[in-house]
Amino acid sequence: MNRNTSKSFSANEKDIDRLLKENSSWKNSLSFISEEIFFFTIFLTADIFRKNVLNLYEKLQIFYNDLQEYKKTNIELVREVHNHRYDIEGIRECEDISCEVFYHDEHIKLGQRIKMFNEKFEKFKLEMMAYTGNNLRKTSKEN
Fold first, then answer.
1. Any idea what DSSP says for residue 141?
2. What pLDDT is stored for residue 140 in this prediction?
3. Is the residue at 23 inside a domain?
């Protein structure tokens, strides 16, 4: 009786491909957020706001500080997504279902963290744009 001695995988290749595509989508989303953070950092420090607005610069500084925290979190998530790709590839090496379940659970947790981060950042951007938009100078000669 000839048995196939090659390791059999219970991990579904289509499932692994799906996880890799989600990982790639997260990477792209976080990359876009990184660009937005860069833009908003320049925007908040530009000389484009009306001068005689009560507590304007204090509020801009708060937005700027919050933006730096989003930047740190984004960098951490980018690193985690990068490392998680190797975890997904590692599913192929699992010898039992508990190993696969562990990697899938980690994938779900990371996806939820990214979703929460995206939602929180979207809310922050709306608040920042609503405030700053109302305080932009209308002309270059305006104070």
1. T
2. 72
3. yes
User: What is the number of structural domains in the chain?
Assistant: 1
Alpha carbon of 141 to those of 43, 51, 136: distances in Å? Answer: 18, 11, 12
Of the candidates 66, 73, 71, 35, the residue with the CA atom closest to the CA atom of residue 131: 66
Residue 63 lies in domain: 13-133
- Residue 46 zone, left/alpha/beta (φ > 0; ψ -120 to 50; rest): beta
Residues with pLDDT less than 70, the chain: 1-11, 142-143
| Residue found by looking up tokens 């919050």 in the block | 66
Amino acid in position 140: S
Query: What six digits make up the tokens of 142?
Result: 């305006």
Quick one: tokens of 28?
């792209």
